[in-house]
Amino acid sequence: HRSVFPMSPLEVLFVNLISISPQAVVLACDAGDASIMARAPKRTAKLFTHEVILDLIAYGCVIGALSLTSFTLSLHASGGLHHLHAECHHPSAEEEAGCVALYRARGAGFATLVVLLLINGLNCADPRQNLWRMIRRRRRLSAMLWCCVFGFIILFPMLYIPVIKDEVLEHGGFGWEWAMILLVAVLYMIYTCVYKACKAGVTVPWMNVDVVLDNVVIVARRSFTLSASQNRPPC
Which residues contact 168 (CB under 8 A, 6 or more apart)? Predict the structure, then answer.
């Protein structure tokens, strides 16, 4: 048996260029805080701060893990784990034996990824406030919510129009997996709220993101310097 792809290349392009691009544009054009001019300038300000790097890891790993979990559970429930073969990679392979379950699982994983990224776009509007509080208090999230509605609506034609799902994106439709996607979305929203609470020191007051990451960087640099000195040839 040869390995099969959990997502096709065009699925990845669709997610990056169509599903989440409107949210990225809205975030880029978002107005700054009203008190931004009252803050002192920072000479050593960085775009990728320790907090941003930690957020990328915390959100990205969980989104990837949940998407792969949806793909695996759908594939296992459909009985396709033991009938995978390399011929499932070419277009119009959904009707072939052993490929129906793979196409269904691809669709479930694809839909899970899109839904989670749409939720994550809302979550990224503020690095510290949780999602529920932002929805209640911030009116400027209306544009982001409309982007979520657009991304969710456009997901259905991609999953159920035969030419698009079979010939272009190479995945299939599904049924009961929508309940799994809903559960995964709720779990992810709860996770983001707990993560932001921990980061802000609400539930874990001793957590200091900058100190932790500074220590990690220092240890990594020392380890690299030590290994480089040991591997250096003698003069």
Answer: 10, 91
